[in-house]
Amino acid sequence: MTARALVLDDFLPYRLSVTSNLVSDSIARAYEALFGLTIPEWRLIAVIAEAGTISQQAIGARTLMDKVTVSRAAIALVDRGLLARRGNPGDKRSHLLELTDAGQDLYAAVAPKALDLEARIFSHFEPDEVARFTAMLRRIEAVTLDLAR
């Protein structure tokens, strides 16, 4: 059997990365221009909005962002008055994060814009295509996590 040649444009991990970067860059420009948020900062706000109160370690595990990125984003958001940080009674070495009223207001302003951008991107596809694509992304994620173990 002849090994196939690596053609970068046909290499699926590369295609996933390029597409992800295009979408992330588009979102980053919008969030930065409208709200002064970086992508990691927005991810923290979104995760905390869903969780209510959560540790930085749990955010890292959920988003697969490294500790330094989560920590820098958390510090920036605390400094802006969007997050509150308090001691974690279950683990004295960590902190719990929660949205302040200003953070909740920001989330309420950003979330509809995020959903609108998603709708604009995926309006070019049939709902069943989006559902299959989402299912495939979840499967790719699960397989990749299994391979990493």
From TrEMBL:
InterPro entries given in the database record: HTH_MarR-typ (IPR000835), Metal_resp_HTH_trans_reg (IPR052067), Tscrpt_reg_MarR-type_CS (IPR023187), WH-like_DNA-bd_sf (IPR036388), WH_DNA-bd_sf (IPR036390)
Domain HTH marR-type: 1-142
Molecular function in Gene Ontology: DNA binding; DNA-binding transcription factor activity
Domain of life (superkingdom): Bacteria
Pfam families: MarR_2
Keywords assigned by UniProt, alphabetized: DNA-binding, Transcription, Transcription regulation
Keyword match Transport: no
Cited SMART domains: HTH_MARR
Record carries keyword DNA-binding: yes
PANTHER family found in the cross-reference section: HTH-TYPE TRANSCRIPTIONAL REGULATOR PCHR (PTHR35790:SF4)
Name the UniProt record assigns to this protein: MarR family winged helix-turn-helix transcriptional regulator
Organism name: Sphingomonas liriopis
